[in-house]
Write a structure and sequence with these properties.
Elements lengths: L12 H13 L12 E5 L2 E4 L4 E4 L2 H4 L8 H13 L11 H14 L4 E5 L2 H16 L3 E5 L8 H6 L17 E4 L13 H15 L6 E6 L15 H11 L3 E5 L23 E4 L10 E5 L1 H4 L15 H16 L2 H22 L3 E7 L2 E6 L10 H14 L1 E2 L1 E3 L5 E4 L7 H18 L13
Parallel strand pairs: 3-13, 5-6, 5-7, 7-8, 8-9
Antiparallel strand pairs: 1-2, 2-3, 4-10, 9-10, 11-12, 12-15, 14-15
Helix pairs in contact: 3-10, 4-10, 7-8, 11-13, 12-13
Length: about 450
C-alpha cells in the first residue's frame, strides 16, 4: 500500500488559510519552501492539516536521521520533561549531560572532551573560541562552498553570499577563504585535490601568515555547497599542512555526521582525524542541541566560565540525543545508510540515461546530491530545472530540497528509517518529476483518495 495519499490539491484549503495568516504576522524572510502545514508525522512521512500524506526526503533539513516521532525518542523526551526540563548546567549540573558526553567521546574516538550548545552555528562559533584560546592566534581559514551558519562569525565563514550574507556586513575580521577540492568543477578533475592543496599551501605565503592562524574549518563533505565529495588524500593533506603550522583542524560534521554517510563521521571515509568535531542536526532529532567534541588540551584552554550559555545542553535535548544514538546503534542505521544511498544513486543513474540535464550523481552513503546542468559538456548550472523538479515532486507528494553554490543540486536527506517500499515510492516520484520538469509528460501518480 502506498504511503503517499493526496486528499486535496496542494496546498489544501486549511493549509492555504494558515499560510495566509502567516503572511500577516511572521517576518517575510521566513519564506515557505513547501506550501502545506504539517499536522503529524512518523518515520519518513508526514500528514498535513488537509489530510494529505507525503514523504519527506528533506528529513527536517537533515535532522530526522531516525525519522519523525521515533517512539524511543518520544519516550525519552517525555520522561525527562516530567523530571525537569531546564537548569543551567554550569549552575546545577545533571547526569544526562555527562552521559551524552560519554557517548559522544566513544563515538568520535580517541581522548576527547565535550561542550554542548543549542545550534550548529553556536557550535561553530564556540569551536573557534576554543581554538583561539588554545593557540593564542586570531585568524581562521574557511573554504569556498562552505556553509557554517548564520550568526556573525559563522556567516563570515560561510561562502555563498546570497541569500546568507548580502546586506548583513561588515563581517568578522581575520577570516580567509581558500578553494575546496570540487572534482566536477575543477579544470583538471583528476588533479582536483592536488590543485586545491596547492592553493592552501600558497595561501600561507600570499594571503595569511600561518603563524597567525588559529584554525581551519572544513566540511568533510560539503552540505549547502552542493554535497561535494572531495577526492581521497585531499582532507588528510589539508590536515597535514595545518599541523605543520600548529593550526587546529575543525571538522564541521553538522550535516554529514551521526551516520548519514555509512560511518558515524564522514571524516572516517577520508582518514581525517580532526582536532575538533562539530555535530548537530541529526544528533537530537531536531531538538536544539549541538556538540563540540575536541582534544582535551584544546577544550580545557579557555578560562573558567569563558564558555557556556543559559540554555546550552538542555536536559530534554540531551535525552533526545541519547535516545537517537541508541536507536542508531540498535537499528543498524549506519549500515542502513549505505543501502539507502545505493538505491538513490542507482535510480538517478537510470534517470540520467533519459535526462541529459543530470550532470553528476555523487555522494557517500545516504548523503547523495544530483547536480543538474544545461549541457554536460559545458556543465552550465541549471538552477531553474532544480526548482521545477522540486515543485513537481511536491505536487506528486514528496518534499525535496536543493543546495549548491549555483543552486543547481538536488540533495537527499532521507530518514534512514525509511522503509524499502517508501524509498522506492519516493524515487519513482523523483524520476517522474525529472522527466516532467524537462518537458516530457509523465502521469501524476495515483494515490488512495483520488
Amino acid at each position: 500500500m502506498p504511503t503517499i495519499h493526496l486528499e486535496t490539491e496542494i496546498p489544501g484549503p486549511r493549509s492555504a488559510a494558515i499560510l495566509a495568516r502567516k503572511e500577516r504576522v511572521v517576518a517575510d524572510p521566513f519564506d515557505i519552501h513547501a506550501p502545506f502545514v504539517i499536522d503529524r508525522a512518523e518515520g519518513a512521512a508526514f500528514t498535513d492539516v488537509d489530510g494529505n500524506t507525503l514523504l519527506d526526503f528533506s528529513g527536517g533539513l537533515g535532522c530526522h536521521i531516525v525519522g519523525y516521532s521515533h517512539p524511543k525518542v518520544v519516550e525519552a523526551v517525555q520522561r525527562q520533561a516530567a523530571r525537569f526540563s531546564h537548569t543551567d548546567f554550569s549552575v546545577i549540573p545533571y547526569e544526562i549531560y555527562v552521559e551524552l558526553a560519554e557517548r559522544l567521546v566513544a563515538a568520535v574516538g580517541g581522548e576527547r572532551k565535550v561542550a554542548l550548545f543549542n545550534s550548529g552555528a553556536e557550535a561553530v562559533e564556540n569551536a573557534i573560541k576554543f581554538a583561539r584560546a588554545a593557540t593564542g592566534r586570531p585568524a581562521v581559514i574557511a573554504f569556498e562552498g562552505g556553509f557554517h551558519g548564520r550568526t556573525l562569525l559563522a556567516m563570515s565563514l560561510t561562502s555563498r553570499h546570497r541569500p546568507y550574507k548580502t546586506g548583513f556586513g561588515p563581517f568578522a575580521p581575520e577570516v580567509y577563504r581558500v578553494p575546496f577540492a570540487y572534482p566536477y568543477r575543477s579544470p583538471d578533475p583528476d588533479r582536483a585535490g592536488e590543485i586545491a592543496l596547492g592553493a592552501l599551501e600558497r595561501a600561507f605565503t600570499t594571503v595569511v601568515d600561518p603563524r597567525a592562524v588559529a584554525c581551519l574549518i572544513v566540511e568533510p563533505i560539503q552540505g549547502e555547497g552542493g554535497f561535494v565529495v572531495p577526492p581521497q588524500g585531499y582532507l588528510s593533506g589539508v590536515a597535514e599542512l595545518a599541523r605543520e603550522h600548529g593550526i587546529v583542524v575543525i571538522a564541521d560534521e553538522i550535516q554529514s555526521g551521526c551516520g548519514r554517510t555509512g560511518r558515524f563521521l564522514a571524516s572516517e571515509h577520508f582518514g581525517l582525524d580532526a582536532d575538533i568535531v562539530l555535530l548537530a542536526k541529526s544528533l537530537a532529532s531536531g531538538y536544539p542541541l549541538s556538540a563540540v567534541v575536541g582534544r582535551p588540551e584544546i577544550m580545557d584552554a579557555p578560562g573558567p566560565s569563558a564558555i557556556g550559555g543559559t540554555y546550552v545542553g538542555n536536559p530534554v535535548a540531551c535525552a533526545a540525543a541519547n535516545a537517537v544514538l541508541q536507536v542508531i546503534e540498535e537499528e543498524g542505521l549506519i549500515e542502513r545508510a549505505e543501502v539507502v544511498g545505493k538505491a538513490i544513486r542507482a535510480r538517478w543513474e537510470e534517470v540520467a540515461r533519459e535526462v541529459p540535464e543530470v550532470g553528476e550523481v555523487r555522494g557517500i552513503g545516504a548523503m547523495v546530491g544530483v547536480e543538474l546542468v544545461r549541457d554536460r559538456s559545458t556543465r552550465e548550472p541549471y538552477a531553474e530545472m532544480v526548482g521545477a523538479v522540486m515543485r513537481e515532486t511536491q505536487r506528486r507528494g514528496v518534499v525535496t530540497v536543493s543546495c549548491g553554490m549555483y543552486h543547481n543540486v538536488l540533495r537527499h536527506l532521507v530518514p534512514l528509517v525509511i522503509t524499502d517500499e517508501q524509498l522506492d515510492e519516493g524515487l519513482d516520484v523523483l524520476a517522474e518529476a525529472a522527466l516532467a520538469a524537462r518537458g516530457h509528460p509523465a502521469p501524476v501518480r495515483q494515490t488512495e483518495g483520488e
